[in-house]
Write a structure and sequence with these properties.
Elements (H helix, E strand, L loop, with lengths): L5 E12 L6 E12 L3 E5 L6 H8 L7 E6 L2 E2 L7 E4 L11 H5 L1 H5 L4 H14 L15 H13 L5 E5 L7 H18 L2 E6 L2 H7 L2 E6 L4 E7 L14 H17 L8
Parallel strand pairs: 3-8, 3-9, 6-7, 7-8
Antiparallel strand pairs: 1-2, 1-4, 4-5, 9-10
Helix pairs in contact: 7-8
Length: about 260
Amino acid sequence: MSQPPALIAAAGVEKIYASPRGNILALAGVDLEIRDGEFVSILGPSGCGKSTLLKCIGGLEAVTAGRITVRGRTVVEPPADCGFVFQRDLLLDWRSVLDNVMLPAEFLRMDLRELRPRAQELLETLDIGAASGRYPWELSGGMRQRVAICRSLLLDPQLLLMDEPFGALDAITRDELNMELERIWERTRKTVVLVTHSISEAVFLSDRVIVMDKNPGRVAGIVDIDLPRPRTLEIRETPQFAAYMRQLRSMFEAFGIMRKAAA
């Protein structure tokens, strides 16, 4: 059976940053395709260019060479119908939780009365509805990130770009938000591109994992994750999950990024 056409395509992508000590080659020769409705993780160590690649896909950074397209159009600005979630929640502390979620509608001068019920519904879905009138400075890190996710979903984008959104959270909160994200994806089947440095998170959430090496950043391999959905945290205890963990870990060992376990 033929695969659906790519929603996102990168061909020969290169990104160079200028610095006082000379140019820095952040990405080189990146080729990849992401299909509509896929959940794809970009996995790699710090400094491999995974966040830079995500920003290029999202039109927040311009490529130096090559081309990225979304729905067949070359990316020169943030694509329409695209939501962003970053590692920092970027909430405005002087606005209520509900008003923070409403920001995208305000920027686009949309009917706020029409969208306010949806904003509250999203907060309820992510189990933070009772905090809609509170302020971000009153919330825990996990609660703040839930608000940021709600904000990114307000306009129901079909493409969701997430740059290590759970990296600063404790393990229990991270597990909770992984489960929330899994449930959102199961219900909506949005195209999600998640940047992470967690092998376990990438295996748990993804249909495919794009593995990146560094110096310069490049796609070193792509691993298909064939685990049943919907997924619960118990799947992490299965032999299949452990096998994917070993496969990805061995790739990083081959790059010299991780040490092999002692015999």
